[in-house]
Amino acid sequence: MATAQPRLTAREYERFRRATATHREELVVRLCGEVGLRAAEVVAVRPSDFDDRQGSDGRFLAVEETDGDTRTAYVPEQVAHDVEQYVRSNDLGEEELLVDVTPRRVQMLVGEIGARAASETGRAAFDAVTPTALRRQFGQRLLVEHGVDARVVAAVGGWQGVDDLLGELRSPTQEEIATAFEQLDGGTTDAGRLSRLVVTLESVDEALVSAPTRTEIDREVCSRLTEVYRAAWVTDIEPDRDRLTVRAHAGESPDRFEGSASTELLRRARQTGKTLVAPDEPGPASDREGRGLLAATPLAHSETTYGVLAVRAGSQGAFDRPERTALDALGRRVAFAITATERKLLLLGGQVLEVRFQYSDGAATLAGLSATLDCSLHLDGVVPGEGGSLVCFLGLRETSAERALEAAADADGVDDVRLLRRHDDGGLLEVVLDADSPLLALAQRGGTITGLRVENGVATLTCELAPDTDVRAVHDDLGRQYPSLSLASKRERQAAQQPRSLRGTLDDRLTDKQRAVLQGAYYAGYFEWPRGSTAEDLAESMGVSAPTLHNHLRKAQQKLLDSLFEEG
């Protein structure tokens, strides 16, 4: 008997989507839940499959179905923008696979997102969400909420009919019946506003790609949003201190959040992680303006929040569900852009903020591992893995490699572990961390981990952050999870400079994925003879397919060789 699929409401779908931790995870969810693709269809999509002909709001996608037939799916404009941004950031060619994993891996990714959503919300139903469940809510939403022609729904989703979709739904309430007929008499959605917002968000996306600093990102976002809204602010809120600061503003009421002006909406948006709306309540200095509605959107990526975006609309019909969904997506994209920009600034050299933390919490995976083994360990290298994980290469002393391997495999927060080398007094482990580590929290903030040493459970962690980072806010965030954590030192310094030819290649030519794969191969002994790791071993640890790893590695090596011989 087939397992019953959970039925997601539109609000539950958006909550599920917010539990994604990477751009790729969000893309998988959107392709299933907003384009109606099956898992096997997601992994077959290439950039060349998108038709350049523009629909009313989006694009068309040629979908190769599992039975060999091809259908035409419709990709909403915001999803199409997400795809384009993903293709650019991952340097994908027209014929390369968009999501180069197996269908089974897509199912696992959705399951991992569901587990994350269940943990964050306390709703066990999210644990049962599958790509099929996302597809079904896509079809049901089109039929019931938007009244799309059943023939169209069946065609774009690849269903033979829609009877099975409708059969699962409860009967409408009297309120729902009345609302449906009221909308026939004129409707309540400001379609023009949403259309203008989509165009504006496209220009915001372009600005995010080119903005060189976090300050410039804040300024561009506010400036461009005033094409749709009366005002926009990017604010910083410190949850443990009664203080709000405005990082950027455009439009009316620059002093809206000064003095006694209400900030409760922004604080609740930060706490809940979603866009909230309320009537505007301007402060005394803004009493000549500020009528209308205020929306607050957290700028959040994974576990890191970079502040709250606030926008004011004059119309009481503003901020319906599609508009709030668009703002939610914007908040995530801005946070992605801030993280990427700060990492880029660190890679380019110049001034960096070097901070050193100490902690001894057993809940921190590597500190707990050292305490369990009564040994010392140090970090030889670290590269980003799949789903926001970190692949750490750990040197161990004063313990046997086999004992360390067994203990690491049983440790909380460890997704995978592999023994790379052994010696008389220890060995080298490859450990994939996916939870319970200050290393992950700092990496999610755009930090570069430069050192970790743990002696009998006491860890000293060194990290480079962008010069304008609020170290106290970072410390407070980490301290809530790891109470023993303390700031041992903080200093600004010049980033270590590499030889110009090599630094130019790493900074200007390699993509983030190519750099990570190259570093991972180096630390894992892939270039040694005999090899310490195969490409398949490394691909599994980093959460990519072997062909994808070979592709990134080949391109990275070619760019390095090009640089070497061009210089010569």
Can you tell me about this structure?
The chain is of the alpha+beta class. 44% of the residues lie in helices and 22% in strands. An eight-stranded antiparallel sheet has the order 12-13-11-10-14-15-9-16. A five-stranded antiparallel sheet has the order 5-4-8-7-6, sandwiched between helices. Strands 1-2-3 form a three-stranded antiparallel sheet. It starts with 9 loop residues before the first helix and ends with a helix.
Helix/strand layout:
Blueprint lengths: L9 H9 L4 H11 L5 H4 L7 E5 L4 E6 L5 E6 L1 H13 L13 H19 L9 H15 L4 H8 L5 H5 L6 H11 L6 H20 L3 H12 L5 E8 L4 E9 L12 H9 L3 E4 L13 E9 L2 E10 L7 H27 L3 E9 L5 H9 L2 E9 L5 E8 L3 H10 L3 E10 L2 E8 L4 H7 L3 E8 L2 E8 L5 H11 L4 E9 L5 H9 L3 H12 L11 H8 L3 H22 L1
Antiparallel strand pairs: 1-2, 2-3, 4-5, 4-8, 6-7, 7-8, 9-15, 9-16, 10-11, 10-14, 11-13, 12-13, 14-15
Helix pairs in contact: 2-4, 6-7, 10-11, 10-13, 18-21, 19-21, 20-21
Task: Summarize the model shown.
The chain is an alpha+beta fold. The protein is globular.
